[in-house]
Amino acid sequence: MGRTLTYEHVETALAEFSYPIVRDDVAAELADVTVTFEEGTEANLGALVSETDSDAFDAVADLHEELDDVVTADVEQ
Questions:
Q1: Pfam families from the xrefs (predicted)?
Q2: Given this model, what pLDDT does residue 66 score?
Q3: CA 77, CA 67: separation in Å to the nearest integer?
Q4: Dihedral, CA of residue 12, residue 37, residue 42 and residue 73, to nearest 10
Q5: What are the 10-residue block averages of pLDDT along the chain, 77 residues in total?
């Protein structure tokens, strides 16, 4: 069974991993996580991670920054 969290708590979920880590591994691990945004929309966190540009991340902050970029781009469309 998957879990749901708000976008403001995504960094906590990302901190559960050991870094460096490969994007595909993070995406697979988060495939059962639904993230809810302030406006009430939802998205699959694993799918959002798979849309990031880097193939690997050295730290939580690196992944979170790219995830912010993906989310911002999705909102602007």
A1: DUF5789
A2: 97
A3: 16
A4: -100
A5: 91 96 97 94 96 97 96 74
d(C-alpha 2, C-alpha 62), whole Å: 25
Residue 13 · residue 50 · CB < 8 Å: no
Q: What is the DSSP string of 35-75?
A: EE-TTS-EEEHHHHHHTSS-SEESSHHHHHHHHHHHHHHHH
Give the three-state DSSP class for 3.
strand
Measured over the CA atoms of residue 11, residue 14, residue 18 and residue 22, the dihedral's sign is: negative
Q: To which residue do tokens 């912010």 refer?
A: 68
pLDDT at res. 77: 57
Asked whether the beta carbons of 10 and 64 are under 8 A apart, the reply is yes
Cα–Cα dist 77/34, whole Å: 20
